[in-house]
Specification:
single chain; Spore Coat Polysaccharide Biosynthesis Protein SpsA, Chain A; 31% helix; 22% strand
């Protein structure tokens, strides 16, 4: 089974323009992400998919692989599809890896890769929710799964609703899961889902994976207990990440 890792990297960003190229103690964010992902043992190839010549040139300058993609893709999934098609080799699966997580654990990538078979259509990671803050945060996508550990639904709301108990007691009454934003797509399925029109549930929750479920695709979930990565969405997030990086370097 051949698996390619793809890191979508846009220069334009509403909250943080140019963030892939910001400096993090001598290396750019995209370089730190790339170097972390390269530690994966399960990927046969890794490429940065970008719409910006400066990012493309920079990735090549530190010895990475990159490809140029269109600047009008509505999502990272669409960018991954174009990038996969531009490769000379053919791959069975593509892994969509967030380009703004410089501390991503390569073991999480390997965990997801190890779960794949040719019967898998789509796969992603989930993690048990441990705090009420996580449960109630609209920034955390919650997921409910069936007996086969396939996703039934994703929501920004706390799901499932625990009847007859106050919310402060919910975590002790059932298991809640949060979505970890790492996706595996079987190559033929990736082509199909990029041709789907946005769905009603997707528009309501602003979660593109709901489009796939609404159209009958199965999303396999794999539970991870590994520490969650830090996502850099804003300049404030960057400063926090740099402080963490300084602490790691000084150890």
């Amino acid at each position: 089974m051949k698996i390619i890792g793809i890191i979508p990297a846009r220069f334009a960003s509403t909250r943080f323009p140019g963030k892939p190229l910001v400096d993090m103690l001598g290396q750019t964010m995209i370089q730190r992400v790339y170097n972390q992902v390269k530690k994966s043992k399960k990927l046969q190839q890794l490429v940065v998919a970008t719409d910006e010549q400066r990012i493309y040139n920079h990735v090549l300058s530190f010895g990475g692989a990159a490809c140029m993609t269109a600047d009008n893709h509505p999502s990272g999934t669409d960018r991954c599809y174009e990038a996969m098609n531009k490769q000379i080799e053919k791959f069975d699966f593509a892994i969509n890896i967030q380009g703004d997580e410089p501390f991503i654990d390569p073991n999480q990538i390997d965990l997801l890769c190890s779960s794949l078979s040719m019967q898998t259509e789509l796969a992603t990671l989930i993690q048990k929710i441990a705090t009420l803050d996580q449960l109630n945060s609209p920034g955390e996508a919650k997921v409910v799964i069936n007996k086969d550990k396939e996703a039934i639904y994703f929501s920004r709301s706390p799901i499932p609703f625990v009847q007859k108990f106050e919310q402060k007691d919910w975590l002790s009454k059932t298991t809640f899961y949060r979505h970890v934003g790492l996706y595996a797509y079987r190559a033929d399925v990736l082509e199909k889902i990029t041709k789907l029109s946005p769905s009603l549930l997707e528009k309501a929750e602003s979660l593109e994976q709901l489009r796939w479920i609404e159209n009958g695709f199965k999303i396999k979930t794999v539970e991870t207990e590994m520490e969650e990565s830090i996502c850099i969405d804003t300049p404030e997030d960057l400063q926090k990440a740099i402080q963490i990086l300084k602490a790691l370097i000084s150890q």
